[in-house]
């Protein structure tokens, strides 16, 4: 439901939140876990606003927010307890946060007077993972990505027969999910060149990124029960950016017959701010219209509401900065920008499918969309596609060529929710630099 917290006219008393292009205007209010870098204070839950973080527990102490289970849940080092609240309680909490940050009204007035005690500059804070992530599942929901990748490996038969009937996914690994800014070592693994007789073990030579949208489960479902497609959004707490780092040479050798394993589980980077599904509400759009020849999804994966509002008008961008570019003080170069509304499967369909066999989803579980690629060449969300398996290298502003990632390369992902006559909401950044193999 769209409410007054989404009002495009709302302004904050924090000026940087009103600046055009700011990721975190007052209509966004994403949650994350921060630590003040100057002090030895423990990590806790905050809300990004402009260039600042609102310290929620400090606001309660100042009497700017009513004590409530939602506010109380922010005095913790993960947002899990907050995520488990009912959507109605979360919505009431969002209204209170919006009032405290609003340039109009008496609560905002009092909050402004307490600014030095309730705000932390984002540049003075260290962000951790937002949630304790019990399980992580990765999908493959872009038909453009699946078709491009499929056609490299199976030119005559890019899409397997199940693709248009169910959202393909695999169980990833939660232990190696790291927050933005964590360096990633080049993984070593077993690879076999097509013409080699035997495999060898060593650092991956085909390291890649995958630009994805992640979504966190808020309230889960009991083991044995399912999540009906039209309830799926009630179980989605919010969204973040995901970089599913992938070692393509390891993947090629290991992926059959059970799918990705060590090619993917050495690291997954996520952005630290979780943009709530309530904030995303005005940015919901129709799901991708299927081709007339495509099958209609089975009833448990299909509904009028999901067809009308199951899509999300998000755009994901990928930037790259080589160490030589940083030495020359060049800005990172944009490699791609991809529309999320071109995904073949919606987030609701992915979640409903995941729970359709009675698998219990738990608060804090992370699901990711799979590489977000659109139909255009510059909307391909990984190097495998952008360079067509290394055959068409990209040229960086220094003249350097990239087929896959080199040591010292930094990958920076950004993303936005966009709608006519509404402020753009940013997801913040998801960045990681490649270190040599350990
Ligand atoms: Ca992936």
Q: What Rg do the Cα atoms give?
A: 22 Å
The number of helical runs is: 13
Which small-molecule ligands are present, each listed once? calcium ion
Mean pLDDT: 97
Descriptive account of the structure:
This protein has 438 residues and is an alpha+beta fold. Helix content is 20%, strand content 25%. The chain has 13 helices and 26 strands. Strands 6, 7, 8, 13, 14, 16, 17 and 22 form an eight-stranded mixed beta sheet that branches. It has a five-stranded antiparallel beta sheet with strand order 4-3-2-1-5. It has a five-stranded mixed beta sheet with strand order 9-26-25-20-21. Strand 10 (188-191) and strand 11 form a beta hairpin. The longest helix is centred in the N-terminal third of the chain and has 15 residues, at 87-101. The protein is globular, with a radius of gyration of 22 Å. The relative contact order is 0.17. Bound molecules: calcium ion. Calcium ion binds next to loops.
């Amino acid at each position: 439901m769209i409410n007054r917290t989404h009002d495009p006219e709302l302004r904050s008393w924090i000026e940087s939140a009103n600046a055009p292009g700011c990721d975190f205007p007052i209509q966004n209010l994403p949650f994350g876990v921060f630590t003040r870098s100057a002090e030895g204070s423990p990590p806790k839950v905050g809300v990004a606003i402009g260039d600042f973080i609102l310290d929620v527990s400090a606001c309660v102490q100042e009497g700017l927010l009513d004590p409530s289970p939602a506010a109380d849940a922010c005095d913790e080092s993960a947002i899990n307890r907050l995520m488990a609240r009912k959507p109605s309680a979360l919505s009431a909490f969002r209204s209170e946060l919006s009032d405290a940050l609003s340039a109009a009204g008496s609560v905002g007035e009092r909050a402004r007077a307490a600014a030095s005690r309730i705000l932390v500059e984002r540049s003075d804070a260290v962000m951790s993972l937002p949630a304790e992530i019990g399980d992580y599942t990765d999908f493959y929901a872009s038909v453009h990505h699946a078709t491009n990748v499929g056609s490299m490996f199976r030119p005559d038969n890019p899409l397997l027969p199940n693709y248009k009937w169910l959202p393909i996914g695999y169980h990833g690994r939660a232990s190696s999910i790291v927050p933005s800014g964590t360096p990633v070592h080049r993984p070593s693994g077993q690879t076999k060149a097509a013409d080699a007789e035997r495999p060898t073990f060593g650092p991956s030579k085909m390291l890649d990124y995958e630009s994805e949208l992640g979504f966190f489960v808020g309230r889960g479902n009991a083991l044995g029960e399912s999540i009906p497609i039209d309830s799926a959004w009630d179980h989605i707490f919010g969204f973040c950016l995901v970089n599913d780092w992938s070692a393509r040479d390891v993947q090629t050798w290991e992926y059959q017959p059970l799918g990705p394993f060590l090619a993917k589980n050495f690291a997954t980077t996520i952005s630290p701010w979780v943009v709530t599904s309530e904030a995303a509400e005005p940015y919901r759009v129709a799901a991708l219209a299927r081709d007339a020849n495509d099958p209609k999804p089975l009833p448990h994966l299909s509904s009028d509401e999901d067809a009308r509002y199951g899509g999300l008008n998000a755009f994901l961008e990928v930037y790259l900065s080589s160490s030589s570019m940083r030495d020359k003080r060049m800005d990172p170069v944009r490699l791609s920008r991809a529309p999320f509304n071109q995904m073949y499967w919606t987030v609701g369909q992915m979640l409903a499918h995941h729970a359709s066999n009675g698998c219990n989803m738990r608060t804090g579980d992370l699901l990711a969309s799979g590489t977000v690629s659109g139909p255009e060449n510059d909307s391909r969300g990984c190097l495998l596609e952008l360079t067509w398996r290394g055959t068409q290298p990209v040229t960086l502003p220094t003249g350097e060529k990239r087929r896959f990632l080199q040591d010292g390369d930094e990958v920076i992902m950004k993303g936005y929710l966009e709608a006519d006559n509404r402020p753009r909401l940013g997801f913040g950044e998801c960045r990681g630099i490649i270190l040599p193999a350990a």
